[in-house]
What we know:
There is one protein chain. The strands form two sheets. This protein has a five-stranded antiparallel β-sheet. Helix 1 (6-21) crosses helix 2. The protein is of the alpha+beta class. 26% of the residues lie in helices and 33% in strands.
Amino acid sequence: MIALSEQEKNVLDLITPEATALDMEIVRVRIMGGRKPCLQIMAEKSGDARTDVAHCVSLSRAVSALLDVEDPIKDKYTLEVSTPGIDRPLTRAKDFARWIGQAAKLELSRPLDNRRRFQGVLTAEEAGQITLLLDDETELVADISELAKAQLILTDQLIEAAQNMGHLPPQGEDLSEFDIDDRSEERGSDMVQEGSAEISGEIR
Length: 204
């Protein structure tokens, strides 16, 4: 689920070596929008290390130069490079394994019993198959390849876990800055939150 369309997969193939050279991993590539598309690249440091603004700046500069040369998107577009944020998308098997015990929402590529969207707690990941404990105590078992998208749900438990992993700066009592922006679903991406960074630039 890192990249879905052929164009996104092409971009992923192009930028992965640049990310690897910076000891970073690509989490997600999305091309969104109409007349003026937005190329969104989410990335993080390898080995679960904390990712900051400087890392995103370095990757943005590296991929901007490459994309200028390779020109995978013919129209003028905007480039955004960001970290996944706290309520991050889950795109790789290791993402699901890493966040077992946390609340997540999933959307299947094809309906199951006339239903695509599910919400619950991740309880297992094995060989690319994940288990989600639903609110009614039933379980959803699905291969990652069957998912259209998956994302963590922002909770106090998730914030605490992220902070314990060193992915957040120390926070005070007020955690209101982590409120989810409802526009993220409409946009097809996650809004960048504190502890992550976004670099934007127009590509001609």
